[in-house]
Amino acid sequence: MAKKQKRFSFTFTVFAAIVSLLLGVVVGAISAAFLDASTFQSDEGPRTLVEGELQIHFLELGNKYTGDCTYIKAGDVDILIDAGSRPSSVPVIQSYIDEYVTDGKLEYVIVTHAHQDHYAGFSITEGSIFDLYECEVIIDFALTNQTDKDTSNMYGRYLNELEAEVAAGATHYTAAECRQEDNYLFELGNGITMEILDSYYYYNEAESENDYSVCTLFTYGDDSYLFTGDLEERGEMYLVEMNRLPEVTLYKAGHHGSKTSSSALLMETVKPEIVCVCCCCGSAEYTDTDANQFPTQRFVDNVAPYTDKIYVTTLCVDYDAGTFTSMNGNITVVTDRNGTRVVCGSGDDRVLKEWEWFREHRTMPDAWK
Questions:
Q1: Is 80 exceeded by the pLDDT of residue 75?
Q2: pLDDT at 11 exceeding the cut of 60
Q3: What is the mean pLDDT of residues 170-174?
Q4: What phi, psi does 104 have (nearest 5°)?
Q5: How far is 111 from 367, CA to CA, in rounded Å?
Q6: Which residue among 248, 303, 314, 369 sits deepest, i.e. has the most Cβ atoms within 10 Å of its Cβ?
Q7: Following CA atoms 161, 98, 86, 348 in sequence, which dihedral angle do they give, to the nearest 10 degrees?
Q8: pTM attached to this predicted model
Q9: Has residue 42 got a pLDDT over 80?
Q10: Quick check: 60 and 330 in contact, CB under 8 A?
Q11: What is the DSSP string of 81-102?
């Protein structure tokens, strides 16, 4: 090959190099605009690591599916809530959080409930989150409707992986045990606390797996941050009744912005200032009905009286083709001495109402007009 290249003129070689460069730029631009699971790199992570005493990172998960994974850095304490949406998301999650977790240790892991889009990354026979990190304290759902414990099933694999991590030295609690043993408030240092909130469905059977979700409240100074997993409307009613919920700086949208969560009652109680939605916006993964695709009109209408600062991780381009792109990308909410700010990994910090998708598929609520 080297001998053949020497036969070309210098002019042609330069011309070819220029053409190659231009083609590379074009192909790169197309790839960036319409990503698929084979090329997606979770916005390539932030170009500069985010700094701040309390950092809450909502991760994109490297495929067209909706799922949850939230990494929280509270001073020197590392916390992971969920690891969806598919087993293939694990390398994406690992490449992101390894920029922050420098000692291979997660002080706290919370697994909200037994749905694939929340716990897939804990349920791999080889290379699960439990295999990749030393997990000191694991808190998970107290009840589930899953019954198949065979290792051919995701739930069975999860139980095996959990058992192995406990055998390796991890401390394990269910959310119910945290509440019943009066061990539900964790001091993370520098005035940051993590509370496992009480919930009716830690102790009672639910029709929906979503209602078993572990619910968590972080507090730092005058700021509070609420996480409810996929808890649905009835579960939210009990959440309000059973806890003294404050008005919150941040609310992670329940159930990905579904119509079944973020009820008017819960929103009226917590009055969120910032809302982050982990979903593949407009995806037909669960339904072809536009009105029921995440984030839904009902979710928007319930949130709108309190804030228009709604951020969404990912946008579906064509579900059948498997193409998607970042909206706000990996979203980080940072609180430090200067206050709270939102950092969008995609570089696009538009809120939901400013996106073309919203104008085409949702109605502007009166509160935003």
A1: yes
A2: no
A3: 98
A4: 70, 15
A5: 35
A6: 314
A7: 150
A8: 0.88
A9: no
A10: yes
A11: E---S-GGGHHHHHHHHTTT--
Residue with tokens 């409307």: 233
* C-beta separation of 110 from 216 below 8 A: yes
Query: If you compute the radius of gyration of the chain from its CA atoms, what whole number of angstroms results?
Result: 22
Give the length of the chain. 369
Dist CA 299 CA 230 (whole Å): 13
Q: Which of 217, 218, 143, 206 is nearest to 174 (CA)?
A: 143
Residue bearing tokens 């190659």 = 20
Both structure tokens of 268: 């009226």
Angle at 176 between CA 173 and CA 249, to 5 degrees: 90
Q: What is the DSSP letter of 330?
A: S
* Phi, psi at 126, each rounded to 5°: -130, 125
Ordered DSSP codes for 184-241: -EEEEETTEEEEE---GGGTS--SSGGGG---EEEEETTEEEEE-TT--HHHHHHHHH
Burial (CB < 10 A; 0-12, 13-18, 19+), residue 240, is: middle
Token pair recorded at residue 104: 């291979």
Q: Is the separation of the CB atoms in 294 and 277 below 8 Å?
A: yes
The 10 Å CB-count burial string (b at 16+, else e) for 104-113 is eebbbbbbbb
User: What does the alpha-carbon distance between residue 220 and residue 336 come to, in Å, rounded to a whole number?
Assistant: 9
